[in-house]
Amino acid sequence: MMLAFLLVTFACLSRALQQGTLHRRTYFYVGQTYIADGNSSIAADQMYVEHLTPAKITRPLPLLFIHGQGMTGTNWLNTPDGRPGWADYFLSKGYELYIMDQVARARSPWQPTVDGPLLATDTVLVESIFTAVQRFKLWPQAILHTQWPGNGSVGDPVFDEFFASTVPSLSSQAEEGEKMKHAGSLLLDKIGPVILLTHSQAGQFGWILADSRPKQVKAIVALEPTGPPFMNVIIPPLVPARAYGLTDIPITYNPPITSASDIARVVVNQIPGVTCFQQAKPARKLVNLLDIPVLAVTSEASYHAQYDNCTVGYLRQAGVSVKHVYLGEIGIHGNAHMFFMEKNNLQIADEVVEPWISKIHG
Ligand SMILES: *[C@@H]1O[C@H](CO)[C@@H](O)[C@H](O)[C@H]1NC(C)=O
Ligand SMILES: *[C@@H]1O[C@H](CO)[C@@H](O)[C@H](O)[C@H]1NC(C)=O
Ligand SMILES: *[C@@H]1O[C@H](CO)[C@@H](O)[C@H](O)[C@H]1NC(C)=O
């Protein structure tokens, strides 16, 4: 009965959104630096930001979306199979949106004489960890994946469309972190306060920006944020990463640290391919994040199902208040890492994310 009601509700929601949500779109850049080039100059470090304003704004705080590695702001627009994305959904709920392309990526230009080397995105990586994880089975939950539209592999029109939207990313996470901190802080000064929605790699930019501008960030929705602390897992090479716990660049702790090695760590859990570190007690606090509520969302079949609780455990130990939702545990099955564009993307927005952010007030 309830399920039938929900299905009807989603059918209506999808139909209404098919036509799109009436809105105005503008774009601007923030963070540009002029760099001398002979007797002239070039520009670097600027961030492209799209501003989508619904016909009627009914929510007090805008949403700022930050996409992950290899991706751009197109992630939040329509899905690769042409359905409405989260941008349309949240516009329909009366939110004003800002959607960026990460610095040195896509419409935020990469300057060959200024920016560091790029890492290409390849088909096997995308198939094996995002779109066709059930075929590669790199982690136990992968077999549960059913929500990607199409077979998630080269030759399928939806995969081909999605893959065409991927782009090279800076290979240094620390370099991207510094550039995102620079332009992102200026962006928050201009548009804040906001609610941040981060995905994957951008998880760390959410912590970095909230640390840099704590008054301008009222809440963070972290969709499968990059993690776990200190060490890469599952996808080789399993090497040290995120030297400051959840970030590759310094973030503020209390008691203060003078270098990353001041953060004492212990292994609390080990499963094949995943080493989970937390801080040794007493844990230092991520002091600028203490008043910023976080919603972490983890899908059932993603590689993040293996370790997001370790990332969340680290945040909680550092004093951050986190609500962690495992989609599988609330009856939303079969999703992997790109769940906000999979078949049930609007259900996840409507049942999990919007109800939480609608309670956040300026
Ligand atoms: C700037 O430098 C270029 C290349 O050296 C030269 O051709 C050009 O005349 C210079 N322009 C001015 C305005 O000095
Ligand atoms: C996926 O679908 C495409 C298009 O039908 C097909 O060419 C391709 O072989 C399929 N790949 C797999 C792994 O099933
Ligand atoms: C995370 O979940 C795994 C599997 O359920 C469990 O073994 C581990 O102790 C948890 N880790 C943390 C830090 O909560």
UniProtKB/TrEMBL annotation:
SUPFAM superfamilies (UniProt xref): alpha/beta-Hydrolases
Name of the protein in question: AB hydrolase-1 domain-containing protein
Chain segments annotated as coiled-coil in the UniProt record: none
PANTHER family reported for this sequence: AB HYDROLASE-1 DOMAIN-CONTAINING PROTEIN, HYDROLASE ALPHA/BETA FOLD FAMILY
Lineage: Eukaryota, Fungi, Dikarya, Basidiomycota, Agaricomycotina
Superkingdom of the source species: Eukaryota
Species for this entry: Mycena venus
Protein's UniProt keywords contain Phosphoprotein: no
Gene3D superfamilies: alpha/beta hydrolase
MF (Gene Ontology): hydrolase activity
Secretion signal span: 1-16
Keywords assigned: Hydrolase, Signal
